[in-house]
Amino acid sequence: MEIDVNIDPDVSCSKCEAVCCRLEVLLLADTGVPEQFVEFDPWGGGRMRRLDDGWCAALDRNTLHCTIYDRRPFICRELDMGGDECVSIRKDHA
Question: Please, are residues 6 and 84 in contact by the beta-carbon 8 Å criterion?
């Protein structure tokens, strides 16, 4: 795993609107994500289930914390808080 050296120290998940939890998350392998949070397209491809408003089904709406943090998909683990991609996603959302 490559570490993002451009970390913005002003970005914190505790002060975020969980913008990354509104992105489509494809599951490219068996990830260990509990099956109630996975949906499949007609061709058998898996992705994180999202609610009708687009939010990830695994997100606790009261705390904005992931309810499956220890079992979250690899792509979610790869997103560095305050890293370039995180900051870019937040900027696009603003």
Answer: yes
Contacts of 10 (CB under 8 A, 6+ apart): 82
Q: Is 91 left (phi over 0), alpha (psi -120 to 50) or beta?
A: alpha
Residue with tokens 């408003």: 53
Number of neighbours of residue 74 by Cβ within 10 angstroms? 14
19, amino acid identity: V
- For 12-47, the pLDDT digits (tens) are 666 676 778 888 999 987 778 999 999 999 998 999
Q: What is the DSSP letter of 55?
A: -
User: Hey, where are the domains in the chain?
Assistant: 23-79
Q: Which two tokens stand for residue 93?
A: 């959302």
Q: CA 43, CA 59: separation in Å to the nearest integer?
A: 26
